[in-house]
Amino acid sequence: MRSVLLVTLAVAVSLAACGGEEATPPPKAPEAPVATAAPPPVAPEAPKEEAKPQPSLAELQRKTSEGLGTALNAHDAKKLASFYTENAKLKMAGMPDLDGRDAVAKHWEGVFKAFPTMKTAASRVWVKGDVVVVEWGWTGTHGAEFPPGVKATEKPVGAMGVDVMWFSPDGLVKEQHTYTDMTTVMGQIGASKQKARPVPTLATGAPQVIPATGSADETKNVETVAKTWAAFEKKSDADFLAASADDVVWEDMTQPEPMKGKAAAKKFFQEMTKAFPDAKSTPTNAWGIGDYVIAEGTFTGTQKGPLFGMPPKNKAVSLHMLDIVQLKDGKVVKGWTYGNDMEMAMQLGLLPPPAAKPAAAPPKK
Hints:
Structural class: alpha+beta
Strand content: 25-35%
Oligomer: single chain
CATH topology of the largest domain: Nuclear Transport Factor 2, Chain: A
Distance between the termini: 136 Å
Radius of gyration: 42 Å
């Protein structure tokens, strides 16, 4: 029996080895599913920054004005010039015009050399649109030759002045008119026999700022001041005094003392119209700003009569000046006139004119 089993087993093994019946293949294992990459998560959009509002012209004007003051007191002529447009125009009563930044820087280098301890401070500021009017004072010592031929005296000097500035949209000064009396300085250093105003006390703290309101009163005030200017041509002291309060005070910064009251104002008017019988005051710009009127223009005439003790010169003058007029209830209560008396002195032959700009060198061949 055992042998039969062995034979049967041997036959089965030989049949398998010779490829007899095919064996049933084992079932295939299920294929693992192919993993597909998940899409990257979408990053949330960063919140968009809101556009910062552009600074207003008034803010730019304030920043530039502050920068000018800082540069002046630091005696940094180059930095000071950077607050002007490349082709800025500067007109200074009684002095040659300045054109462009380089001329501005060169001018201030000379000023800082002449007055090495110079300091400035603004006292009042008026703002209307692109125009800013700044009243300021300066003090220093006479530390170098000025004017030409007058050696340094080391005496304290100083004067009040006004700038009228027009601003570009980017906040730089594109035009400036400056009024300050240099005969005051000449009197302080003994180069002139004329009695001079004392060295001013500089304002402290922030200046008073007076913005325009656009009111009807501002327009009316301008008309009132225009009539006083027109009185010179009419030789009408009545028109000149009509809008003045009885206790009006007028500070002509080219004169040593203020005029107080209508009687003093009348005397001044008559002195000027007798000295210049063809006198004419012509406003070129006038702004009503708050209770003030700022008016700049020219005074023209021929000196045919004595003027404050000076004999007639029979010469024509054309003077640049600026008035600051304060009104209350339609009446002038106080006024300030700014100019440069050197302008009159030069035109009457009392002083030599300032040196002319050197002629441009011919191009090299």
